[in-house]
Write a structure and sequence with these properties.
The complex is a heterodimer of chains A (236) and B (363). Chain A is of the alpha/beta class and 236 residues long. Chain A has nine helices and seven strands; from the N terminus they run βαβααββαβαββαααα. Chain B is globular and about 60 Å long. Classes of the chains: A alpha/beta (236), B alpha/beta (363).
Amino acid sequence: MKLVVVSAGLSVPSSTRLLGDRLAAATAGRAGGSVDVRVVELRDLAVEIAHNLTNGFPGPALSAAIDDVTSADGLIVVTPVFSASYSGLFKSFFDVLDQGVLAGKPVLIAATGGSGRHSLVLEHAVRPLFAYLRAVVVPTGVYAASEDWGAEGLAERVDRAAGELAALLPAPVAAPVSSSAPEAAVPAQPAAGRADRPIAGQAAQPVAGRPDQPIAGRADGFHVVPFEEQLAALRP
Amino acid sequence: MQFGIFSVGDVTPDPTTGREPTERERIKAMVAIALKAEEVGLDVFATGEHHNPPFVPSSPTTMLGYIAARTEKLVLSTSTTLITTNDPVKIAEDYAMLQHLADGRVDLMMGRGNTGPVYPWFGQDIRQGINLAVENYALLHRLWREDVVTWEGKFRTPLQSFTSTPRPLDGVAPFVWHGSIRSPEIAEQAAYYGDGFFHNNIFWPADHTKKMIELYRERYAHYGHGTAEQAIVGLGGQVFMRANSQDAVREFRPYFDNAPVYGHGPSLEEFTEQTPLTVGSPQQVIEKTLAFREYAGDYQRQLFLMDHAGLPLKTVLEQLDLLGEQVVPVLREEFAKNRPADVPDAPTHAARVAAAKEEVSRV
């Protein structure tokens, strides 16, 4: 199972990255099974993202990051608050994704800021963005102000959000009994407290089962509608 | 295989002098470039179609008709004809007329256009772009093949007993290419009709162009027009040459850095690495162009973008000399090597007329 963190932090070390890592560890712990966690650091992709905006195509490193996000079973997205909203770099990354890439994808939203006064940025800016992108955003967003790193409460919020995201991830799949019958793979026992997990049979094929995925079974990623169908749809 | 040039028709100030040509100068320069293409032995000249500044070619058949009168062999084409916002009836008439005047030296490339407001300016909705391309071309295809057409569709007034005149020369419609950078629907459309597919091959990395062409080839075979290897493929390309490659880089850099489309973005070096752009010696251009075959297969038409970004006419004409004298003869020879016998040549009017006659005699 693949969990991808998108971090828009700019400094090194970055509290945005710190929050992303913490959410990823908590989610992986809750999900059980083997979780492949990848981190996309937007700082390293800033120039390629700008070039994509002007040229229309992604460079090699950005292309790899987009592939990671596209193939992720779940996303954790973390932005610093800049001028009362998500950062421009954060938004630009999601601007260059193809339409539909995030449709149906479980997403945990998080943000960092200098003070608690901007905590609602998650609700008035980040959540509507991902609603537009048709992602499935978990109810708990995690905001960490500077003071939160030395106070009580953050751990509980991280844990609650991680549990909500883990519940939306596909069930961990046990190793096949024999290589000749991979379809016989049985999901591991659900962890306690995850009553809302998806049906195991569907969860085993997260991509094909997800609505509006542009993949449609072709290795090249193209969605091909036979021409007769396209023409017939226009007949008055 | 055919070699030629395609022009966007942009009016751009020369970044090294700040001088901007007038529209008249630019239009006349496009004509001079087309005439030069024939003179240096190229096969095709294609003009863009635009309806907003800084572009001049809004009326392609006017320009191509004028060029037709002043050339003997050059095939006149478009890059692209807006199948979305032009009335397909007018396209049928205009290009059939041009076909007669040019003695068949005409084909055209359909495209959707990428300037949002052009759609509403011509009474259309950009969200219907693909659907407009599908319906309008389906009508155009009939208008050139059926003498009397009764038709009803979503986007235009119905037609009752309409005959598009003049009828295509020798009863054979102009060959059509469909150009698209990234829409699989257009590759599918080209495959369905057995038409050509053109990838502009300028702004995107080769692996993307490869995927689009493979899709078109696969679907061409699916629709029974021939094998995947026999599908009709065209590619764009973009080059700037000097005998010494360092001179080419030095001279072209200010034009690249300030180009309307990709200027102020990636560096010349980055763009050269990631896309088919070649800035260097004629030998480097030959090597890079020959490598297109590795991802596109044996193909039929290679067009180069030569006159853009404010390059002065004199420079463009020098580029065409290099292209015609040093590059294309080698490309013709090299591309012919190991080319399977059943891969068709680029379609011409004469070949299509002969094929149509053969079809009739077989029936």
